[in-house]
Design goal:
Blueprint: H1 2-27, E1 34-38, H2 47-51, E2 60-62, E3 75-81, E4 91-96, E5 103-106, E6 113-116, E7 131-135, E8 146-150, E9 160-165, H3 166-201, H4 204-224, H5 241-262, H6 265-268, H7 270-278, H8 280-290, H9 297-325, H10 329-354, H11 365-400, H12 410-427, E10 431-438, H13 441-448, H14 450-467, E11 473-478, E12 481-487, H15 491-506, E13 509-512, E14 515-518, E15 521-528, H16 535-551, E16 557-559
Parallel strand pairs: 15-16
Antiparallel strand pairs: 1-2, 1-3, 3-8, 4-7, 4-9, 5-6, 5-8, 10-12, 10-15, 11-12, 13-14
Helix pairs in contact: 1-3, 1-11, 3-4, 3-11, 4-5, 4-11, 5-8, 5-9, 9-10, 10-11, 13-14
Length: 567
């Protein structure tokens, strides 16, 4: 059932996501072609000389719309329209996939410097932060170039430049906001669900989930830039790209602890669990170093972390798959949840290491896989909680019931009797007790064997238990003795019930090992009314009444003399 639901959920989410990404990718296509040129490294490029056009002859045309940033030098680019702008609305120049690169843009008519960077404060934001944008004059001509300076970065990026009519860019940007908001909202709700479950259950695996999913959410908001527009989010701006790396790395470290705990790897695969757990320490050390302002260390750490992500993901996947093969339910949920994220991580790391092209839809990959993973993991956590609750109920039931007859055991009878007696003393009412003993039971064991005796005990327990009403409790008190607790029952009613049960036992014909046996039972009755008798005294009175019935010839009901007709 859980597997079918997860498969249906996965299919629906995949189909909906592909449709959204297809629409977003289509709407992000530029409507106007541009010519982009680059000033070669080594050419002296004072800002005034560049924007005045003095160095235009030194610019070299770049194929396509991709720029390339540098870790050591400022790069200058000249962007020109292939034809005069004739749109009804002004054009929007957008720089996508810029990462944390800081640009300085000089555009007509005044060519004043405009800073453009991902985490910059913007009180009157007109667009989202998934691209760096500037609105150009409506009448911009092909002979009015835009100059763009890219400052040195921690790691190289390949931004894409496009020019789109304002209305069309706003529409595509709105689609983008819808998509990232949906994914972030899903992730946020799943974190809240996990937190609520943890507050109720105090299970360690839940706080691991809340921690790693929450850190993933912060990383997602850092990459999209949305976090800088929420209260307090601007405090992360000075850390730039290092903040995103920190949260991604910290999330990876805690996710390993979650995997080990959620899939119970220490019990199911202790050696692989120890190897996987060892990956937490390099992640933790790297997270600390990532917060330190060491520019030369950042590129090296990024490559090492990408390889570490790849290795730990593959190891975790192999370990969980192995445990899932043993029938571990949580591992199966985790495989469904994590497969898209691992696949995307491998694709993304490979793309970064090999400097492969950057498709437009890729910025939605992590948000989608994180949201999808969180949904399935929460379902898995709920399933684990339900499974644990069922096991607890089964264990509780086994602890309260007699292993042979299936009726309540002495411990459960004592507990229910004490609870009902307290209620009678506090709120008033009546309580009766029947002590039932099978006559000559020892002789049955001696003559026919213990299997025959066990068959007799089962038959009596089943017959008596099924004949009592809801709210009346029945169980095995020990050996061949049984106890029936009758709330709101007086002496006469209890005696009548005792007589009915006596006739019921007398009428049983039990087939034991091919031998038909008949039984009789003696029953003692005691009642508790508005007196100060203890539970022990009540049971002792019923026991005394039972022995009186046996002394009077067995197969009869005896009533303790202290049980009044009103009790």
């Amino acid at each position: 059932m859980a597997r079918s639901f997860t498969a249906i959920l996965s299919s629906c989410v995949f189909v909906a996501t592909i449709a959204c990404l297809a629409e977003a990718s289509e709407s992000l296509r530029a409507s106007t072609s541009l010519t982009i040129a680059e000033l070669p490294v080594g050419v002296s490029a004072p800002t005034q000389a560049v924007i005045s056009g003095t160095l235009d002859r030194d610019f070299v045309a770049l194929p396509g719309g991709e720029l390339a940033t540098s870790t050591t030098a400022t790069r200058w680019f000249r962007i020109s329209l292939n034809s005069d702008w004739v749109g009804h609305e002004p054009p929007v120049l957008s720089i996508a996939d810029a990462g944390y690169t800081r640009f300085r843009l000089h555009a007509p008519p005044d060519y004043r410097e405009r800073p453009l960077w991902h985490e910059m404060p913007n009180e009157s934001a007109r667009f989202s932060r998934h691209a760096l944008t500037v609105t150009l004059p409506a009448g911009i001509r092909s002979d009015q170039p835009v100059y763009l300076a890219a400052d040195p970065v921690l790691t190289t990026t390949r931004p894409r430049v496009a020019l789109t009519e304002l209305a069309r860019y706003q529409a595509s940007d709105l689609n983008h906001v819808r998509i990232v908001t949906a994914f972030a909202s899903i992730q946020f709700v799943m974190v809240l669900v996990g937190l609520c479950l943890w507050l109720a259950l105090r299970d360690r695996v839940l706080i691991y989930f809340v921690a790693y999913a929450g850190l993933q959410l912060v990383y997602q908001l850092l990459v999209s830039g949305e976090i800088y527009d929420v209260p307090g989010g601007s405090a992360l701006a000075p850390f730039g790209q290092r903040a995103a790396w920190f949260f991604a790395t910290a999330s990876a470290a805690i996710s390993i602890a979650f995997i080990i705990e959620f899939c119970n790897l220490r019990r199911n695969s202790p050696r692989l669990a120890a190897i996987l757990g060892a990956f937490r320490w390099p992640y933790g050390v790297a997270a600390i170093f990532l917060l330190l302002p060491w520019p030369g260390l950042a590129p090296l750490l990024q490559n090492l972390l990408n390889l570490l992500f790849l290795l730990s993901s593959l190891l975790a996947l192999a370990t969980v798959a192995r445990v899932a093969g043993y029938g571990n339910r949580a591992s199966r949920f985790f495989l469904v949840a994590w497969m898209p994220q691992v696949a995307f991580t491998i694709f993304r790391v490979t793309q970064i290491l090999l400097l492969l092209p950057h498709p437009a839809w890729i910025e939605y990959g992590y948000p989608f896989t994180m949201a999808f993973s969180s949904i399935v993991i929460v379902i898995g956590l709920a399933d684990s909680t339900l499974h644990a609750r069922r096991e607890r109920d089964i264990a509780h039931g086994l602890a309260e019931h007699d292993g042979l007859t299936g009726v309540l055991n002495r411990r459960a009878l004592d507990s229910r009797l004490a609870e009902l007696a307290d209620r009678v003393r506090t709120d008033g009412g009546r309580l009766a007790l029947l002590f039932i003993d099978i006559d000559h039971f020892k002789s049955i064991n001696d003559r026919h064997g213990h299997l025959a005796g066990d068959a007799c005990l089962k038959a009596v327990a089943s017959a008596v238990a099924s004949s009592l009403k809801d709210g009346q409790h029945f169980g095995r008190y020990g050996g061949e003795e049984f106890l029936a607790i009758l709330p709101e029952t007086n002496k006469d009613e209890a005696a009548a019930i005792g007589e009915r049960l006596r006739r019921l036992v007398e009428g049983l014909v039990i087939n034991a090992e091919g031998i038909e046996l008949t039984l009789t039972a003696s029953i003692g009755v005691s009642c508790l009314g508005n007196d100060s008798s203890t539970v022990e005294q009540l049971v002792d009175r019923a026991d005394q009444a039972l022995y009186r019935a046996k002394a009077e010839g067995r197969n009869r009901v005896g009533i303790h003399p202290l049980s009044s007709s009103n009790a």
